[in-house]
């Protein structure tokens, strides 16, 4: 809402940036830090910032467009991040097991 008595618009009058349009900036920041496979989190963060900028100048249509793109990118970043993280863990476990079995076989052949 407006900033009350100090606002030139008067108390309770909404101004630019006062609408409840989500810009998904926190979600984008999370994806940028933790789920940034293929840099989708960073791109989503850029669109979130653009959405926030558009909202601040009063361009609600532009802000909604950027926010929608940021949301879509965040969904893809989260899904890809989860799949790629789980896939990487599975591959690392298989590699570890293969190396462990090979090491045991070598030790067994040498007589340890």
TrEMBL record:
Intracellular or extracellular location(s): Membrane
Database matches in PANTHER family: INTERFERON INDUCIBLE TRANSMEMBRANE PROTEIN (PTHR13999), INTERFERON-INDUCED TRANSMEMBRANE PROTEIN 3 (PTHR13999:SF4)
Family per similarity comment: Belongs to the CD225/Dispanin family.
Record keywords: Membrane, Transmembrane, Transmembrane helix
Keyword Transmembrane helix carried by entry: yes
Organism listed in the record: Ovis ammon polii
Protein name stated in the entry: Interferon-induced transmembrane protein 1
Principal location listed in the UniProt entry: membrane
Spans traversing the lipid bilayer: 25-47, 75-99
GO biological process, one term: response to type II interferon
């Amino acid at each position: 809402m407006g900033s009350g008595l100090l606002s030139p618009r008067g108390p309770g009058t909404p101004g630019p940036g006062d609408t409840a349009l989500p810009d998904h900036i926190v979600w984008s920041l999370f994806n940028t830090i933790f789920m940034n496979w293929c840099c989708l989190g960073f791109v989503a963060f850029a669109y979130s910032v653009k959405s926030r900028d558009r909202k601040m100048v009063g361009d609600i249509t532009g802000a909604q467009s950027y926010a929608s793109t940021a949301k879509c990118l965040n969904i893809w970043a989260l899904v890809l991040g989860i799949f790629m993280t789980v896939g990487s863990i599975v591959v690392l476990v298989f590699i570890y097991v293969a190396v462990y079995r090979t090491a045991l076989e070598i030790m067994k052949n040498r007589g340890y």
